[in-house]
Amino acid sequence: MPHPLLYVGAVLVAMSPLRAGASPQAPAAVAQASKIAVRPRFEVGQRQELQLVRVREEWQGAARVRSNESTTAITIECLAKLESGWRCRWSFGKVETPKVDGAPGDDMVRRIAALVEGVSFEYRVSAEGVFAGVVDEARVIAQLDERFGAMAQALRESAGADETARQRVDSALEQMRPLLSGPALLASSLREPQFYYVLGAGEFERGKPFEVDDQLPSPFGGAPLPARRRVELVDQRSDGAQALLVWSQRMDAKALQAALLARAVEQAEKAGERPPTAEELVAMDVRDDALIYVDLASGLPARVEFARTTVTGERRRIDGFRIEPRAAAK
């Protein structure tokens, strides 16, 4: 059975400009402004019908060894004006049959992907247009826990009286529980809403990238790791109605390697083995890249393409997603 983490939530698709390293080209006929202002604008009753596609790809050298894709309809609604900001709702619609290596996934894959189908949550957006937290977190967590419980019960019933089959199901459920419990599933479901509002309000000037130091959660738990974030205006599209910004962030290589070494030493000591040295570890790199197409009239993204690339020696994993208007999805 494929690892359940590959299918938590719903998502991606080819991010060809990022993967190929190509620089997006603006139409020659469009006059290019040297500076733009992004000002997110909200109205009560505002509604966006979008499509969310998540994908994970695993590579060994130049060979792709696995790919997983799932697509979900999403709806964003602006519900109310707050004293400072807005209250909105994010709703997951129908989840299409997920694909594993281009073919429909098995029953377990479909059940896991469908855990978020029909789930919605309300959240706050600051006056600057930045995601500011879930409003009804306890309710959503309870709903997701209930769904996982229902899935677990259905799987146990499908095993029937076969004791060996029931043991396999129980073992699989115990492996999945840390990943698919209410808090964990909500956290994974918030990745796209949080990033959708990552720009907030600001001014961007061509040829003058905005760079800032940041702290990111460590892949190994514990203290966050230093990172560097960069946002750059590269061109305008759709007759100047959209601006394309390239967003990226990268964890500090030395801090990441130190955290990797600390985890490896901890695991070796628990197993009663000799701890590895820094020279014995395989180098690791984690970076995030995104293309954000901003509608300048609303100040909100018209399309987002995101990919996190994790490289460990010859192995490379890409976890990404694409958000776009539903009518544009293929």
Tell me about this structure.
By secondary structure, the chain is of the alpha+beta class. It contains seven helices and 15 strands. The longest helix has 23 residues, at 137-159. The protein is globular and about 65 Å long. 26% of the residues are buried.
SSE layout:
Elements: H1 16-20, E1 35-38, E2 47-60, E3 63-82, E4 85-95, E5 99-100, E6 103-104, H2 107-113, E7 120-125, E8 131-134, H3 137-159, H4 163-180, H5 182-189, H6 191-196, E9 202-205, E10 210-216, E11 225-237, E12 242-251, H7 253-270, E13 284-295, E14 300-312, E15 315-325
Antiparallel strand pairs: 1-9, 2-3, 2-15, 3-4, 3-5, 4-7, 5-6, 7-8, 10-11, 11-12, 12-13, 13-14, 14-15
Helix pairs in contact: 3-4, 3-5
Short description:
With 330 residues, the protein is an alpha+beta fold. It is built from 7 helices and 15 strands. 26% of the residues lie in helices and 40% in strands.
Uncertain regions spanning at least 5 consecutive residues: 1-30
Cα-based radius of gyration, to the nearest Å: 21 Å
**Proportion of strand residues:** 35-45%
Number of strands: 15
Into which percent range does the helicity of residues fall?
A: 25-40%
Structural class: alpha+beta
The major pleated sheet works out as: 13 strands, antiparallel
For the record, the count of structural domains works out to 1
